[in-house]
Design goal:
- It contains two helices and six strands, in the order E-H-E-E-H-E-E-E.
- With 123 residues, the chain is α/β, with parallel strands linked by helices.
- Helix 1 packs antiparallel against helix 2.
- The two termini are 16 Å apart.
Length: 123
């Protein structure tokens, strides 16, 4: 199951929550083949965070976990995600940080009562 964590230093209005939930899961689904219905999205606003070059501006940090996407497609991923955030939150593309965390050899996860491990591990 893909998991997307969206964090920002500003308040997230309810209409933005709906846009982010729907459109981020669709974008990640399109690029990874994960069903959109199985993409978990969590949204947190009003965090104490900043980027040095944008100390007083709205910023966003997006972490996408448990997906397999080739690094050659990183630009495609950013082009799918940044417009969603710009539309929903009016956060400039250069103030959006995106991290993709793929399950590795020593990773572990639990969903629906099932426990699994990354490549090379045992279930």
């Amino acid at each position: 199951m893909a998991s997307i964590k969206f964090e920002t230093n500003v308040m997230v209005p309810e209409d933005a929550v709906k846009i982010i939930h729907t459109n981020l899961s669709k974008a990640v689904s399109r690029l990874t083949g994960e069903p959109a219905s199985e993409v978990q999205v969590s949204i947190t606003g009003n965090l104490r965070m900043r980027m040095a070059t944008a100390a007083t501006q709205p910023i966003a940090h997006i972490e996408i976990r448990n997906v397999h996407i080739d690094k050659e497609r990183a630009g495609e991923l950013a082009r799918a995600i940044c417009p969603v955030i710009e539309e929903a939150m009016n956060i400039a593309e250069h103030n959006i940080y995106i991290a993709v965390v793929n399950p590795g050899r020593n990773s572990m996860w639990r969903v629906n009562g099932e426990v699994g491990r990354g490549e090379g591990g045992e279930s």
